[in-house]
Amino acid sequence: MLELLKDRISGLIEECKSMRMLKQIHSQIITSPHLPKTHSYFLITRFLFVCAISDWGSLSHATDVFRLIQNPNLSVYNIMIRAYACKDIGVPENGLWQPIILYKQMLCTGISPNYLTFPFLVKECTKKDGGGLGLSVHGQIIKVGFHGDLFVHNSLINFYSACGFLNTARRLFDGMPSRDVVSWNSLIAGYLRSGEIESALDLFGKMEERNVITWNSIITGLMQGGWPKKAIEYFFEMQVMNNDSVRPDKITIASVLSACASLGAGDHGKWVHSYLKRSGLECDMVIGTALVDMYGKCGCVESAVDVFRKMPKKDILAWTAMISAFALHGLGKEAFDLLEEMETLGVKPNHVTFVGLLSACAHSGFVEKGRLCFDLMRRVYLIKPQVHHYACMVDLLSRAGLFEEVEGLIRHMPMQPDVFVWGALLGGCQMHGNVELGEKVAQYLIDLDPSNHAFYVILCDLYAKASKFDELKRVRTLMKQRGIRKTVPGCSMIEICGVVYEFSVAGSPEVLMEEVEWVLNGLSNEMKIEEGIHGIM
Questions:
Q1: 8 Å CB contact between 449 and 419
Q2: Is the pTM for the entire model greater than 0.70?
Q3: CA geometry: angle at 325 spanning 225 and 307, to 5°?
Q4: CA gap 118, 104 in Å, rounded
Q5: Strand 491-496 to strand 499-504: parallel, antiparallel, or no bridges (unpaired)?
Q6: pLDDT tens for residues 252-288?
Q7: Are 117 and 77 in contact (CB under 8 A)?
């Protein structure tokens, strides 16, 4: 009968979905005269787990209950260590984190840790970037004898990878008697986080078993590492090589859409969108925003608007993505119409929204509107302009040839102008042929970053357009003396029938360059013949 009562209360705790109900069950446990101490302790432990770990629980209430428990056992300590490690709790005045305090308290009471204790201690050190403390915990693991446990080993690999000690993480990985997919994923994530993409791909290629986390790590890592084309290739490989047990999830879709946006690969993006519809995955705000961004950057503004309008819920990121899409295509009126709609619905623009609006003004030539927008940001929304807002204003005014106003704006900036601010001004000088100012700005940028070839090239272009050939020769000689040249060859990409082709000054392995050159020469000859005919007529 008592066993049945214990199981019944335990089931109620597991089914509980609110703190109010959980507290009622707790009061029943501590006031029930029929429960033996062993059953009561077991149920308090179950209560503590649900209260401390669940999303709707209360760690502070769990802590209060924990302090009332006389002689807490290892399970109770493990629950509290896990709870604190999984929550973002600040560092107390004594400089130690709560899981470490609990661990030391546990040792002082004579309780030895087990394999469930250490992964969460290590997780706390990983989360708080506690390199020195993590090494101490590793020493404790070796001392107690759990360094051979798979779960403990995985947590250490993740710790060393996250803290940038990749050689140590690799040594631990290579020394493991047995590994699971988490072991591989942890090291791959570490390589990707440190920008060692080729090492990550090499490890990925050796894996016999991969889960969705593996694929997401690789696809997202390639995207963030500047390999968007490769990210798309791995997305398609994921579907070819895996069965239904490993299917793309929302993280996969969002990463691939970002890769498509980066490449301007509209056909790929449309295919991913159609896959999303077929797969039954929910098109939430994150994916909806990624679709708007992708369509906007791929030139499909109408599709971006269609996705945006169909989103049932929109946060500030979604509104900003749509405004930025309008800005990219010079649709300033539409961008400001959307701002009005936002304001009507009570959605407050943020600093990124204003970057999009100011960019829309620059691309649309809305000088007065840009001035008003900059003022609106400061006076109405109390958003302090950052350096990128000033860069947008400099770009807007420079494109309009208002150089005196630009110089005044830069002079009164509350922070040091960065390379983007000066670069925007230099671009305006190049556009309007303002050699005198452009020369000063280019020289300043060259002094700031003497190895950047772009500043020399723009200065050469300014001199060439102004027929200042002696100065042009001087800059080219200076470039030669300093060994200034493009370290990375210029390239562009084009998508044809769903295939992304890359063209580079250094050539392209995917494109028959000789045939391309033959066609270009043919077109050039045709144009010369046309010019000759028109000249005769």
A1: yes
A2: yes
A3: 95
A4: 12
A5: antiparallel
A6: 999 999 999 999 888 999 999 999 999 888 899 999 9
A7: yes
